[in-house]
Amino acid sequence: MTHETLAPEGETPLSPAAAYRAALLDAGLLIPTGVDGLYGRSETYEQVVTALEQSITRLSAADRPEQMRFPPLLSRQDFLASGYLKGFPHLAGTISCFCGNEADHRRMLACIGEGEDFSQFQQPADVVVTPAACYPIYPVIARRGPLQAGGLVVDVSSWCFRHEPSVDPCRMQMFRMRENVRIGTPDEVVAFRNRWLERGAAWLERLGLPFEAALANDPFFGRAGKLMADGQRDQELKFEMLVPVGSVEEPTACMSCNLHMTHFSEIWPLTTADGAMAHTGCVAFGIDRLTLALFRHHGFTPTSWPAAVRAALFG
C-alpha cells in the first residue's frame, strides 16, 4: 500500500512517514490531539490491537507465563534504581504536582494568566511514567525470594512513555508494549531468546508482514552511551524485527528479542533456586507499531485483509 507524498503547491513535500500519518488521520484511524506523537485511536484501530494481543497470548501459551498487568506509572524509587536516567535521560518522563497552599495557588494562577512558567509551583511526585513494560516486574519478583527450579516467564503489558515527539506515527510518545520476560539461568534465558527469534519470525510471516531480523542496540545517550551501544552489539544482546512502515529506507523495529544478562539482578536481588544471580531476557512487541504495520501492508479495512492474515490474528 502506498501513500502520496505530495504537499500543496509551494510547500515542502511530506516525508513518507508524515504522509502515512496524514493518511491514518484522514481515515480516522488515528485521532489528532495537537501534539506530535500523541493520538486517540478509533474503534477499528482498537479492534486490531485486541486481535494482536489475543494472537500474542496464543503464541506465548507454550511458555506458560505468569500474567501481570500494571498501570503506566512506576514508583520514583524503582525508576531511579533502574538506572534508566543513566542511559536514556532524553526519553524519560517524570511527573510533577502542585503541593502548595492557597497563596501559592493564587501565585501559580497569576503566572498562568501572564503566560509565564509556573513550574516553580510544582514538586516531583513519587511516581514517574513507565518507560518500558517490564520495569515494574523485577522488584516484585525479587521480593518473592529465590526462583523455583526452571525459573519463570512473565507476560506483562503496559502503556509506556518516551519523550520523542515526531511526525512518524510509529514514534509515539505514549504507546503500548507487550513483553514476555524470562528470568532464570544463563542457558535458560539464551534458549528462550533463540526460540523467540524463530517463533517471532514465523508469526510475522503469518501476519503477512515483510521484515528483517537485525542486530541492534538501544538508543543510549551521549558519549558513554555509544560505548554501551557498542558493547550491546558486540555481545549480540539485542535483535530487532524491522518492518517497513513509515518508510522502506528506514524500517521500524516492531519486535525485539533481548538478553539483559545480570543487569536487573544487580539492581534487585533476583536469584535462581541455587542462590546464583539470575539472568533475564525478553521478547518485546510494539503493539501500536505492529498495528500500524498491518494497516500499512494490508489496507485500512481489516475485513478485506487476506484470509490467512485474518486467521493468524482472529483465530
List keywords for this structure.
BirA Bifunctional Protein, domain 2; single chain; 315 residues; 12 strands; disordered N terminus
What's the helix and strand layout?
Layout: H1 16-26, E1 30-35, E2 38-41, H2 43-60, E3 66-69, E4 73-75, H3 76-82, H4 84-87, E5 94-98, H5 102-113, E6 122-129, H6 137-143, E7 152-161, E8 174-184, H7 186-206, E9 212-215, H8 222-234, E10 238-243, E11 252-261, E12 279-286, H9 287-298, H10 307-314
Parallel strand pairs: 3-7
Antiparallel strand pairs: 1-2, 4-6, 5-6, 7-8, 8-12, 9-10, 10-11, 11-12
Helix content: 25-40%
Shape: globular
Element string (H = helix, E = strand): HEEHEEHHEHEHEEHEHEEEHH
Q: In CATH terms, what is the architecture of the domain at 41-72 and 131-314?
A: 2-Layer Sandwich
Strand coverage percent: 25-35%
N→C terminal distance: 24 Å
What topology, given as strand order, has the largest sheet? 3-7-8-12-11-10-9
**CATH topology term of the domain at 41-72 and 131-314:** BirA Bifunctional Protein, domain 2
From the alpha-carbon coordinates, what is the Rg to the nearest angstrom? 21 Å
DSSP strand tally: 12
CATH superfamily of the domain at 41-72 and 131-314: Bira Bifunctional Protein, Domain 2
Mean pLDDT: 94
Helix count?
10
Low-confidence stretches: 1-8
Main sheet record: 7 strands, mixed
Protein name: Amino acid--[acyl-carrier-protein] ligase
Structure, described:
This protein is α+β, with helices and mostly antiparallel strands. It has a domain at 41-72 and 131-314: BirA Bifunctional Protein, domain 2, CATH 3.30.930.10. Helix content is 36%, strand content 25%. It contains ten helices and twelve strands. The protein has helices at residues 16-26, 43-60, 76-82, 84-87, 102-113, 137-143, 186-206, 222-234, 287-298, 307-314; strands spanning 30-35, 38-41, 66-69, 73-75, 94-98, 122-129, 152-161, 174-184, 212-215, 238-243, 252-261, 279-286. The strands form three sheets. It has a seven-stranded mixed beta sheet. Helix 2 packs across helix 9. The longest helix is centred in the middle third of the chain and has 21 residues, at 186-206. The model is unreliable at 1-8 (pLDDT under 50). This is Amino acid--[acyl-carrier-protein] ligase. InterPro entries: aa-tRNA-synth_II/BPL/LPL.
